[in-house]
Amino acid sequence: AQSVTQPDIHITVSEGASLELRCNYSYGATPYLFWYVQSPGQGLQLLLKYFSGDTLVQGIKGFEAEFKRSQSSFNLRKPSVHWSDAAEYFCAVGETMIKAAGNKLTFGGGTRVLVKP
Amino acid sequence: KAGVTQTPRYLIKTRGQQVTLSCSPISGHRSVSWYQQTPGQGLQFLFEYFSETQRNKGNFPGRFSGRQFSNSRSEMNVSTLELGDSALYLCASSPTQTGELFFGEGSRLTVL
């Protein structure tokens, strides 16, 4: 069965500093890869996705992520954090080996990001 | 375009009761998925419906069920509620089969 690990439960970063969130996955092939963000009391919003091709993907709100097959990782980065980036971030994988199961996502435990002024 | 709408947003039930949650997807989206979010277990996939058929199912007991109507609106039902069913239930719709989900704000269920 696939799994997703986000090693950092909490990260505190100063406004204007860079941010990197780690994500490692276990799956028998290259899965669909996603980062979602959840603000307090809200649902999840898709930040970016990787299906194939260029391993560096750009998303919304200035975020980017890099897929590294050799490390089974899909880390999220932002060069300069804004106070509005304080939220919980979830890495997720979607199945590619089972037909029509791409929307059955497995999520990591999440990383809560706090932004210091 | 209106987003995914979930009702009710908050509800309180007692053990043994049943609950029905509703989800209206984004217009044109035929896939509707449900996820349970708890502090202990995180986000877990419940099931996905596509064109009124359950296409995928997670590892939840039979007390959890759902359905989808011809207009793509979906409902999920939990019978014989247990304390551990207290959670945020998130509905997501999608125009594809590739994991690009659009989530509603969720229905927060408290079981007393």
* Weakly predicted, low-confidence segments of chain B: none
User: Low-confidence stretches of chain A at least 5 residues in length (pLDDT < 50)?
Assistant: none
Order of helices and strands of chain B: EEEEEEEEEEE
Tell me about the biggest sheet of chain A? 6 strands, mixed
Shape of chain B: globular
- Count interface residues per chain for the largest interface: A-B, 25 and 27 residues
Structural class of chain B: mainly beta
Please compute the radius of gyration of chain B using only Cα atoms: 13 Å
Global outline of chain A: globular
N-to-C CA distance of chain B: 37 Å
In N-to-C order, the SSE pattern of chain A is EEEEEEEEEEEE
Structure description:
The complex is a heterodimer of chains A (117) and B (112). Chain A is an all-beta fold. Helix content of chain A is 0%, strand content 50%. Chain A has no helices and twelve strands. In chain A, the strands form three sheets. In chain A, strands 2, 5, 6, 10, 11 and 12 form a six-stranded mixed beta sheet that branches. A four-stranded antiparallel beta sheet of chain A has the order 3-9-8-7, with no helix packed on it. Chain A is globular, with a radius of gyration of 14 Å. The mean pLDDT of chain A is 94. In chain B, 0% of the residues lie in helices and 54% in strands. In chain B, the strands form two sheets. In chain B, strands 2, 4, 5, 6, 9, 10 and 11 form a seven-stranded mixed beta sheet that branches. A four-stranded antiparallel beta sheet of chain B has the order 1-3-8-7, with no helix packed on it. The N and C termini of chain B lie far apart (37 Å). Classes of the chains: A mainly beta (117), B mainly beta (112).
